[in-house]
Amino acid sequence: MLTLLPGLAATGDIDYQKIFSFAKPDCLKQVEVRRNLSVSLTGWPDLHPGTCLKMEFERYESGKERWPAVIWRTPAIPADWSAAEAISFDVYAVKKGVLRLHFAGDQTARQQLIPVPAGRSRVRVPFVEGTFNYGAMKQLHLLMEDPKDSYIFYIGDLELEQRNFRKLYNALRWEIAKTLAATTADFPKKAELLAALRKSEHELLATLPSKSPRLVSCWNNYREAATALLFAIQEEEITLLTGQKKVQLLFAGSMEKVHQKDNFFLDLPSKQGEIVLAGNEVEAVQLLVRSPEKLSGVSVSWSSVPVNVSGVKLPVAALSVLPVGYVQCDKPCYAVSRSGLWPDPLLDYAKTVDIPAHAWQSFWVEAALPARQTPGVYRGQLTVKSKDTVLGELPITIQVWNFSLPEGIPYQNVFSLPNESLLENPFVKQAPGKWWKECSGLLLSHRANPTTLYGWQPPTTKEAGEWMKHGMLSFNIRYGIGKGEKGLNDYIFSLKQAYAGYEKAGIADKAYCYVYDEAQVSRFPEMRNVLSRVRQAVPQARFLTTAYDDTLGLNSPLGGVIDMQCPLLPNYEILMPEIAKARQHGTQVWCYVACTPNLPYPNFLIEYPSLCMRLLAGGMIWKYRPDGFLYYSSALWLAKSHREVLWSRPPMDGAPVTNWNGRSFGNYNGDGILIYPGKEGPVATLRLKQIRDGIEDYWYFELLRRALEHSGKMPTDWQASARKELQIEPDLIRSMTDYAQDPRILQRKRARVASLLEEYYR
Q1: What pLDDT digit, counting tens, does each position of 167-180 carry?
Q2: CATH 3.30.565.10 given to domain 15-162
Q3: 412-703 architecture in CATH?
Q4: Could you report the per-residue pLDDT of 34-44, keeping only the tens digit for each?
Q5: What is the DSSP code (8-state) at residue 81?
């Protein structure tokens, strides 16, 4: 495997630079303190040696400061933090609460949520490259937002954790050594590249004792030289695979994001394509084409439908090939590995594509098998043409397990499909019903629930019933509650009418109402008053919210009125003890992502790794067991964005480079858009494919769980292996910010689970 480690994280042997100490009696003269916060210097309450800052926050009430804070400004703190990995400090909390760190520069800012448990702990906030210029610090704020109670925190000296460049150097040096040992390539530029690497290595080693900006520069030079060497080795290995033919034809895994130029593969491509799946499952592989000359009218087709040794063929309708398209992604407000063209849409409207010289072009080769497909290995062939000229033929195998996945969705989810602005969309308004049906059908075929979160019109009983037939486990009735008494009465009347139909159809218990999107603590009394009145009039109503309730209703006005709490993904991981208690009180706890959180948390932004998306929809849901997963929009182009009227753009066209920009909500690429508006209908994305594959991974675990429950006749070693594989190993997912970067780790896990299921169903 050829890999590059551009984001090597330094762990262990950390050097600490103290940037502000509370040991000096006059240190408070160097800070600013906002209203509704009292500060003083004192000893630690647990008798820990040293002096600390005591911060006493008042409970927020209307008219008070919403963001009470201690503020440090340069030069009281240093301005250049570019050589650091993180900021850290000790904290003692009288009771648990949520602090925030706000970093401010000349034109950029970043804020980090910090859940603090009761008692003593260590806060560490890592720096993410590209999210903020840590070399030009101006201010640092330590604050709370709308404190829902009075809080007391004791804060220790502020320290920067310096990058351990020697450890970074050793890790990358080891990676280079492994790659050099594994490669069979020998090429003229290798000596030149090694010489450049040694030169930059010498400069780095000469500066290692220093913590100066010069050290950062030397490290960057060394990493660039290492990148050039590793990339050259990859390219030579690819040449060895394909021989001296001008046109290179290879296969890559479904979790690769293949760029046209300067693409680093997670795993070296192969001459043999392989898809492994169960019945009623969909999996894919990517066929790659590259040539030193421009190719026109390139297409990929099945020249031989896969057949097994008994002569059984896979159904032709189950096989498809689509060119992967590109969208322009401008530099966003979060860290990315590159800007420019990114692979994302699957161009079902393009039968052929023109491929620029020296550019990779990927074709998405997908198998969507019916249930109870005859198990075994099927062998077929794909033909690549440029107009009428055959460029090559490649073998492909499809291995089918002896079990099938169930229909539908194994856990509650919602990938909201906006529908309120269809008539305003210039290319949708001609046939809004058609677009709605095709978009919702596309989501359902990817096991994603299209129920609308922000709609004011309840779905009809027929529509909701159809969703249930597709395996949806729940659906939203409506969102908005109009202003004043009239608005509330209209809302209640709407719910009564909707529930009457749902009850006749036997699906009323699947319905809920999404309310008060990301509401602040200050709105909780209003929420309790309004929703209590709704519940009194419509007793069967259930409410789902993303309101910022860190107590999950255990110690807030929302207790007893909210049935389904939905914290942001990082908060879900933090609030595990509260989640267990909330569930004991009958409250469901979901989780969600939107434009945040950002890496290292997983999300569905265009530039993020495919593997993290698949894990987010599959392995992480299995490991952490939220009662549901929420994503606010799958087709934001149907509605008015907060930043741009996206539906004013023309339909997607062009191949492989499309006319669409990846920007969606604000300065985020792909946020809220998992489907594009194609000129002939909705266009799926690579990201939607990863979500589906993750949900189907979840089905593997669920099927094994069910098998283990009824495994009385299975050998004890099978049962032991099944119990083991139902756990998620740390090398796959250690936490929501520490998970596998190598798709092969997930593939091996999936294969082990499938092998156990094969044995069970044999």
Answers
A1: 888 888 888 888 88
A2: no
A3: Alpha-Beta Barrel (3.20)
A4: 999 999 999 99
A5: -
